[in-house]
Amino acid sequence: MAKDLTQKEMLRIDYNPPKSGWMDTPVKIKPGIYCHPAKPEKITDVGMPNAHTWNPLDEDWNLPANWQQIFFEGMRERLDKHRSFKIFMDICVRCGACADKCHFFLGSGDPKNMPVVRAELLRSIYRKEFTTAGKILGSLAGGRELTPAVLKELWYYFFQCTECRRCSLFCPYGIDTAEITIIGREILNLLGLNINWIQEPVSNCYHIGNHLGLKPHTFKENIEFLRDDIESYVGVRIEPTFNRKGAEVLFVTPSGDVFAEPGIYTLMGYLMLFEHIGLDYTWSTYASESGNFGFFTSFEMAKRLNAKIYAEAKRLGVKFIIGGECGHMWRVIHQYMDTFNGPADFLEVPVSPMTGTTFENARSSKMIHITEFTADLIKHGKLKIDPSRNNHMKVTFHDSCNTSRAMGILEEPRYVINNVCKHFYEMPDTTIREQTFCCGSGSGLNASENMEIRLRGGLPRANAVKYVHEKHGVDTVACICAIDRAVLPASMEYWVPGVKVAGVSELVANALIMEGEGERTLNLRGEEIPVTEGGDNV
Amino acid sequence: MNNWLFERKSSISEGWLRRIFETYPPEAATFLSNQNDRFANPIGSAFLSAAGPILEELFGEGNPETVEGFIDEIIRIRAVQDFRPSDAVSIFFLLKLAIRDEMTKEKEGQDKIKTEDILFLESKIDKFSLAAFDIYMKCRERVWEIRFNDFIKRPFVLSEAAMCPSYLIKKGMIKDVGFDGEKGCSLS
User: Fold this and answer.
1) If contacts are CB pairs under 8 Å, which of residues 3-42 in chain B contact chain A?
2) Which CATH number goes with the domain that contains B114?
3) Contact criterion met (CB < 8 Å) for A55 and B175
4) ipTM, interface predicted TM-score of the complex
5) Are residues B15 and B55 in the same domain?
6) Which end of chain B, C or N, has fewer beta carbons within 10 A?
7) 8 Å CB contact between A104 and A457
8) Could you give the number of structural domains in chain B?
9) Could you tell me which chain A residue has the CA closest to the CA of B188?
């Protein structure tokens, strides 16, 4: 018989679950948080090991019998190879400076999303297996055994880190938690534990040329469809070229811009900009992807995918490369390309054919970001612009993690936006530039099945957008990253309805006065441009 | 409304917030309750800014629609966090506990409050709980709509085989589409 509660006991029912520290709280894998596992054939066809079928909700993940040995050997190899990884494993003093800087922690309240704890998941194994103190003292020295449950926890949380590096900005020791995640994922890949949203694009990119698997004719046709749209809305016929040898510039952009909304409008912007200035450039249907999901898999895969852009530049005989609005591409180009596949000494240091500006920052990589290229054009008065066409928009700018923290592209997009839009409002200082919050879905986590964790991770960014939306009526978030363009719409729909997302090049093209254009009553989305009675845009 | 309780509104608010933050893991609860900056602590500051107006309304007219925006703000957050539905909407039950805490803190409290007052107040809180449930359901449905829209907007080249549920079921990579025994409804 149930125990009779006293009146006092009835008033004190505890709604809270029992508490335990992070190491003693077992992981509970939940739908909505993780992405589907990689298809075995997509692992095998890029020569990666231990492809197998498994389900994250199952007790048994069908791991190879010697999975612990593979894990430890993989970890040892990386400790020997990457001095930074070894240092990051050793020097953290758990000061907590990073703890409250992660968008996933700020949106979830889950302590295992604190960067320090997420790294500690792996560090505890390092201590137990690779340090004398940990081997002898075990948990007293912060070490723990690598059990199947611990492996599952590692998988769950390394795919809840977008490698945005905001935490590293605040670490007094300079520990880059993103690098820990990168290597953690590499080790998981040795066991065939990638997610399909990353693995299939990797396979596509490796075999076909882009993440989406667009074959050359499809890639070309899609761009031609967008060219037709430009003709309908702007009245100008553009004839882009493909795989043209002898062009001055090779242009590469994320394949999401070719195929998915709202990226396609950004791509229309590129087409119009290059037509406007008469740039001698070509698209490639082989190096048809500037993004690099290999970077979310292993350094080796990143290197292999990065190589094709440069191989194609060499084949076509271009002078330099311009990359579209992409985030992680720029981290790969600026922080890894030289040691991956450099030096690109068969290319020339980029010099703008229109302004004569030498892009010293790209002296080694020979590749520049379209936003710095556009900013330079505006600075030298090379663009004919009617910013009033964007007068009806109230715009803010979301700094992409990689372009801001890894590359320092901070002023250029703001300069461009301020020249093509009348109403620009910054989000609060602690949420932009180097301190920018991640969109919540970077590093290959932009699938649909993990929407709940995406929305959690998107909260800090959306919260800042909401602030300028309420204060200034901001209705457009501009960005220079294809993943941002793909994922921020969902985040806005949930947290700040009424705010749309646009690439900066889309805003530029809406303002461009094209030679021979018709009356511009529609924007690149085919929407009416609101006009006041006096003829001015509102 | 009972004056004795109304005068202790700020203390009740503190107790209520403490109980809400305790629904998060201890490592997080401290941070959520101590950092007031809206941008450094979006969860905590949402609760901090909503508690006052909600209590004001509760002790006044008691119409949840008046403060729907505040209830929405906090339930919208909890609707996508790691809570069971009952835990996500439990915040107004925690308010009852916070009020009982206040009443039992001083003997005087129990003497000065009439039973009818407390019953009336708790009925009002029940209305707020039901409003929270409505908002929770709206948010969950929105999550699924967004997820579905995101799915159908995927480039078909990828969705054709990579993510098609029938493919995943065939390969045993997901268990079921729909109700799945103990795990409930899932497509993952």
Assistant:
1) 19, 22-28, 31-32, 35, 37-42
2) 1.10.490
3) yes
4) 0.91
5) yes
6) N
7) yes
8) 2
9) A31
